[in-house]
Amino acid sequence: MILPIDPANKLSFKRFIKDGDLVIVYERHDTMKAVKVSEDGVLQNRFGAFKHSEWIGKPFGSKVLSNKGAFVYLLAPTPELWTLVLSHRTQILYIADISFVVMYLEIVPGCLVLESGTGSGSLTTSLARAVASTGHVYTFDFHEQRAASAREDFEKTGLSSLVTVGVRDIQGEGFPDEFCGRADSVFLDLPQPWLAIPSAGKMLKPDGVLCSFSPCIEQVQRSCEALKSQFTDIRTFEVLLRTYEVRQKILESCPVNEGDSIERPPRKRRQGSAEGSNGTECSSSPTVVIRPSGEARGHTGYLTFARLKCFV
């Protein structure tokens, strides 16, 4: 469970793995998967067979061995990791945009948040953690099957008490009237968000904040035009994130001759050779190497924020 809740509605983060828990199995930095633990379960991968029974009782973060002596790590299913392993029913928001959205929407525990559309539920998961344990997220998707799949995911990750999924065409029908004047924040991820902005304005409390995510600048322009009548403090951001890979490599370093004025830097070890170019023996040692990731994402979309005007 991403966010276990006890009967008193207080957060109670579990530290030890139990039968039925959801675990993120970390194989390497770019290979992770979500696995539901069962007493008789076995995970088979390229590293061998891992018995679930040997996981139960271990703390999250444990290193466990396969029948071949290889290992994986068992991580707690945080929203950040869930975003990396969930099923992509639609294009999703990633950590850089999600963290920006949660901050600028001013979401804190107890908030009521409206979202459209749900999609794969990546953002919804982080919104649920932000409002826990006394708030609630109401998310809507016009596609019935996507909504049903999202419900299953929220049940699986233990968030169903914090998230309600509805099937509704927000662009055409707007948000349900029952939320008028009750929402602290509204998030829109729609092809034509300007059609839903008038309804969003009715849902927000005075001084409430709206965010619209759009991949194209033309969508942003039309949305800003629609926002001007009801909203103020309109801002648009593009969040670009550059990640770095941290790896451990075996590097070779050779002793310096007395006549050398400059020490030669460590070099990658050449297979089958433990000598330098001058015949001296070289030593090898593990070294941490940091370099930009070759899979860095560029533009994902534009985030437009606006605050509802207070009319006295």
Automatic annotation (TrEMBL):
The protein, known as = tRNA (adenine(58)-N(1))-methyltransferase
* GO CC field: nucleus; tRNA (m1A) methyltransferase complex
Q: What is its EC number?
A: 2.1.1.220
Instruction: Name the Gene Ontology biological process terms.
Output: tRNA methylation
Q: What is the superkingdom listed in this entry's lineage?
A: Eukaryota
Q: Which family does it belong to?
A: Belongs to the class I-like SAM-binding methyltransferase superfamily. TRM61 family.
Q: What is its main location?
A: nucleus
The UniProt entry, under CDD domains, shows: AdoMet_MTases
Q: Which InterPro entries match?
A: SAM-dependent_MTases_sf (IPR029063), TRM61_C (IPR049470), tRNA_MeTrfase_Gcd14 (IPR014816)
Residues where S-adenosyl-L-methionine binds: S120, G121, S122, L123, D141, D169, D189
Catalysed reaction(s)? adenosine(58) in tRNA + S-adenosyl-L-methionine = N(1)-methyladenosine(58) in tRNA + S-adenosyl-L-homocysteine + H(+)
For the region Disordered, what residue ranges are annotated? 257-293
> What UniProt keywords apply to this chain's record, in alphabetical order?
Methyltransferase, Nucleus, S-adenosyl-L-methionine, Transferase, tRNA processing
Q: Write one Gene Ontology MF term.
A: tRNA (adenine(58)-N1)-methyltransferase activity
Query: What gene codes for this chain?
Result: LOC102597671
Where does it live in the cell?
A: Nucleus
Outline the extent of the tRNA (adenine(58)-N(1))-methyltransferase catalytic subunit TRM61 C-terminal domain. Answer: 71-307
Q: Locations of Polar residues compositional bias?
A: 274-287
Q: What class of enzyme is it?
A: transferase
**One protein family per Pfam:** GCD14
